[in-house]
Amino acid sequence: MDRDRALVDGARTGDQASLVALYERYYDRVYRYALSRLGSVADAEDLAQDTFLKMVDKLPSFRWKGPPFAAWLFRIAHNGVVDMLRRRAVRRTQVPIDAVQVAAAVTDDTGGLDDSLLLQDLINAMGKLTHIQQEVISLRFSAGLSVSEAAHALGKAEGTIRATQFQAIKALRRILIPNEGI
Amino acid sequence: MIGRRNEPRLADLLEDALKRQRAGCDLRATLENMESGAAAEVAPLLAIATQVRASLAVQPSPDAKAATIRLALDRECRAMASRQTRPVFRLHPALVAAGLAVCALGATSAGAVLASEGALPGDALYFIKTVTEEVRLSVSKDRVVRLELNRQMAAARTEEVALLAAGQRPITEEAIERLVAQTTKLALGAAAPDATPTLNEQVVAVMQRQQAVLQEVSAAAPPNAQPALRAALEVSQVSHQAACRAVERSRHHGAQIPNPPTATCDVTLGSHDAEDATAPVTNSLPGAGQPERPQVPANPINPGGAGVEKGGRAAAKAR
Lengths: 182, 319
What we know:
The complex is a heterodimer. Helix content of chain A is 65%, strand content 3%. Chain A has 8 helices and 2 strands. Chain A has helices spanning 2-12, 16-38, 41-58, 69-88, 119-126, 131-142, 147-154, 158-176; strands spanning 101-103, 116-118. Chain A has a two-stranded antiparallel ribbon with strand order 1-2. Chain B is mostly helical. Chain B has helices at residues 7-22, 27-32, 38-55, 62-85, 93-105, 110-116, 126-138, 143-166, 173-190, 197-220, 226-255, 274-278, 313-318. The interface between A and B is large, with 67 and 67 residues.
């Protein structure tokens, strides 16, 4: 948080090194969030770019008394996602994503899934969740926001975020492992 | 079965377990500490959450990333020019255009960047120095250019440690961490198949100098600094061996020798690794002719990961 403050304050005074450092700190997270919500590499890159350009424009109006910087930035990204979904009528299941297989760091064998989960399969499964569940999963697991930050970004209470996260994971388990009901 | 009445409690337990997982705590211990019954319900959800997190950990395309920062810096320049001129008076458009051109040319805050060149870890301007280097690296696509930049950065980190020692300034943890991280990056880059023998030899020279500096610093350092310095030296030695092998490989690759003879690397290692130093470095490695990934310890600063290596619209737009 202190690091964010130093970088944001630096960037607001025109220090480009601070701006670069902010971007280094958040670009990957914004990109992952956008990819998980939009299901398209090109759209995710566009959205990440738009988010950072808007951040530059809006930075002078950012106030430390409001939500944390991460929540503020992801609010911009979230609004961008909503706009993009509305404008382009993106349908995740119709946009093929590169088949990126990431080895899962599962430490417990009670999950019942294979050792890895294809990103495409996950995004398809996420498409079956409610919008708020998708948002919470993306903000928490792609963007790495805390419950408090996700709550600020979505304008919800922390308890709501925790409950939605729980319901979303439960639903994902039902979708990904159909034979094991909870 | 999860009863609806229990859900808020389970949601809190799941969040608590996720937090502990992110903090690196042992999950089995976390689950064992839960009240009976709760662990059995939380564990499968935790497994799903872990997989979701791992699957979403993709890396963006470096091209798109570089394009975005270029546009953001340009936007910032324009915004600053506009903010500075607005309250005073309206500038003639030609003057604004000239200002923007100057701004674009100095898109990396030239003054601060120049001033930061001699900065050492702990100095106020050191941060700018390292960010500038990273930006330079992030906008370079060519693997050989990136290797050369990484070589320069590793040499810089080495000289910083030497200068700190010479100036009798404390050698910070940050200085050693950065040196280790940069050495690791350099060793990984040296495995690139298109690196020239000359460049790989320069990489070896950096590692040699690094080991000499670390040994010198280690000799005068207090006991509590020894573990970090020893670890840095080990990384340097392993990286050095990998770089030596890369030199041999690139020499033979260049000479088009189908079965190159056994050769030694004409570089001596530090005293910690005397056995390895005298051992011949051969080409009888698994998959000779193939780029070998050096077995260096994981980069503690930027471990990287599987990536979507694809230039997208963002990169194309900026081009």
